[in-house]
Amino acid sequence: MRRADRLFQLVQLIRSRRLSTAAYLASRLEVSERTVYRDIADLVLQGVPIEGEAGVGYRFGAGFDLPPMMFGAEEAKALVAAVRLAQPWLDASLALAAEGALGKMLSALPPVSRAAAESLALYTAPVEFHGLPVHDGANLRLLREAVAAQRRVALVYVDVKESHTQRLVRPLGCFYWGRVWTLVAWCETRRDFRSFRNDRIKSLEVTDDKFRLESGKTLADFLRKVAS
């Protein structure tokens, strides 16, 4: 890769994340961390407002932005494929937003690239044959909105033994496992992390009670616990 191309890619990588470590950047660019440090120093000297330091991470300064980038032909195809595959398993609101976003992206492409992306020979069956049931879709929308708003959720859950339990949880994230969504949450009832299958949530209510992220009760804590 030419150095000019590498510097361009480096800017795009830092732009795409809130904080990027040198190790992450080096692995994506297939260079040494020493090269990353040198490239960042050169970019800063050229006036690119990159903030951060070695051992911590890098990001762009507040208010800095670049002109929108044009998608390449393969990138456009990848986005078309992602939306087609995801739509049947999203709630109706998010599926509609994904379709709208894809349409805006395609409209900005040159005619040849747009035609190639739209004619991508990857499809999913109609929603009525394999998509997310209406009840599950409604639950998913409420749960992802509760995660974003950090509001506690009261739910009635049916476990594998058909036992009904009432739970009060702090919703942390929704995970897709291939035909099934699960909610990862801190369960106030059990005082521990729990995963709830969306299709086994009998009913739910998003309360007005907001929660604060506390050490030991966050999604990052859950992921560390699973990985250990």
Report the sheet-strand fraction: 15-25%
Shape: globular
- Largest pleated sheet: 5 strands, antiparallel
Mean pLDDT: 88
Q: Gap between N and C termini, in Å?
A: 37 Å
Q: Helical stretch count?
A: 9
Order of helices and strands: HHHEEHHHHHEEEEEH
Q: Please mark out the parts with pLDDT under 50 across 5 or more consecutive residues, or reply none.
A: none
Strand order of the largest sheet: 6-5-4-3-7
The radius of gyration computed from the alpha-carbon positions, rounded to a whole number of angstroms, is 22 Å
Count all strands and give the number: 7
Helical proportion? 40-55%
Q: Decide which structural class fits the backbone.
A: alpha+beta
Walk me through the structure:
With 228 residues, the chain is of the alpha+beta class. The protein is built from nine helices and seven strands; from the N terminus they run αααββαααααβββββα. The protein has a five-stranded antiparallel beta sheet with strand order 6-5-4-3-7. The protein has a two-stranded antiparallel ribbon with strand order 1-2. α2 (22-29) crosses α3 (33-45) and α4 runs parallel beside α6 (111-118). It is globular, with a radius of gyration of 22 Å. The mean pLDDT is 88.
Quick rundown:
This protein has 228 residues and is an alpha+beta fold. It is built from nine helices and seven strands; from the N terminus they run αααββαααααβββββα. The radius of gyration is 22 Å and the shape is globular.
